[in-house]
């Protein structure tokens, strides 16, 4: 069996003869892009961002943060408005309930007054007793609502509780003492429905 003589390899840098294959750099490599031994040049893609790109990135971050703050502000305003409306509704319900309780407490007084009027032709003494009982019932109702009756005499004048409507000369009591109640008051100091109309003593 005969052997073919081996062809000598062409020297480095020689041009390949027709019919001979030459090794070419793979596509996408640094040699194919024409990069030198020092690597890609300054204009190659993927280099560090310039000042303009950094400014655009920061502006985008600021715009996103501002949009988030505005959204939170609008949500807070909506929550506050809903809370105000809910509080107004609850307050109105409480007022209506309090008015209903007060009216219900006065209903027995009205019933007894009608009962007294239905016996107008009876004995006057019994009518007076019935009206007095109704009065006492009304006073008790006001006391349960927080407005107790105030009609004391012989106590020092208190401008927070009393209203002077008359002056009486009385040498037996100290000046400024309540000697007569002309109109009772209801409620305590700080929770007063009306003050006590009184006459106080004075000396010559």
Structure explained in plain terms:
With 204 residues, the protein is an alpha+beta fold. The protein has helices at 30-33, 51-118, 124-144; strands spanning 149-150, 162-169, 178-183, 185-188, 191-194, 196-202. Strand 4 and strand 5 (191-194) form a beta hairpin. The model is unreliable at 1-5, 13-21 and 35-45 (pLDDT under 50).
Q: What portion of the residues fall into strands of 2 or more residues?
A: 15-25%
Secondary structure tally, helices: 3
From the helix content, strand content and strand pairing, which structural class follows?
alpha+beta
> Runs with pLDDT <50, length 5+?
1-5, 13-21, 35-45
State the distance separating the first and last CA atoms.
166 Å
- From N to C, what is the helix and strand string? HHHEEEEEE
Strand order of the largest sheet: 1-4-5
Q: What is the rounded Rg?
A: 53 Å
* Morphology: elongated
Biggest β-sheet strands, sense, barrel = 3 strands, antiparallel
Report the mean per-residue pLDDT as an integer.
Answer: 79
- DSSP strand tally: 6
| Estimated helix fraction | 40-55%
